[in-house]
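From the shared-data thread, chain only:
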Amino acid sequence: MVQINLPKNSKIQQGHYYKDKTGSQNIRKVNIYRWDPATGENPRIDTYEVDMDNCPSKVLDLLNKIKNEIDPSIAYRRSCAHGVCGSCAMNMDGKNGLACTKPHAEIKGDINIYPLPHLKVLKDLIGDLSTLYKQYESVQPWLKTTKIIDDTEHHQTKEDRSKLDGLYECIMCACCSTSCPSYWWNGDKYLGPAVLLQAYRWIVDSRDEDRKERLKKVADELKLYRCHTIMNCTNACPKGLNPAKAIASIKKMLATS
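Structure, as tokens:
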């Protein structure tokens, strides 16, 4: 069940139905969450009949077809279309993911598309990520060192460099954090899996000299220990990363330091 942060005193209602006019025999219904704060109206679900014979394979292609050919008013984020930027993160068929990498053929029955769960909705499929970005900034995700080097690189051993594998690939799409019940209920205080994964990426970087302070910053009952290791974050990550493991590693480092 997808849970969306609705405006107060509102409920989702059935919206417009756009019927296919091509006569195609390969038609699928696409149900999309719609809400425009400028109108003052309740959120609704608009239904579109789409000719799948003339649509590329990904959910983002499907959305682009609807926007370009049926309803130009629909709003969503997209950019690279190659699973690199994380812009098109949304909830499809009840699961968080990237619309540009999700094949619509994997979805059985009607295709249901919602914004990421438990974020304030700015418009339609666009969630408000401002809190997540502030939390990301709070862990100071940059190299902190006092060393002066003569060349252009901070060198690492291959062993030290390998510790960053599975961490640096995070694209901050928020699929993991918005799949986490602890982040749903404590998102203003709990840093969440995406930000904690990024914090750990700098904690274990051999070139960084601020490990103690970085650990101290996240060593808080609400910032870190709201994680209950239910693994939603790891299951939701479109890059195949393991935020739950990173969080457990931070806890272990704090317990043994």
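The beta strands are 13-18, 27-34, 44-51, 89-92, 95-98, 111-114, 121-123, 126-127.
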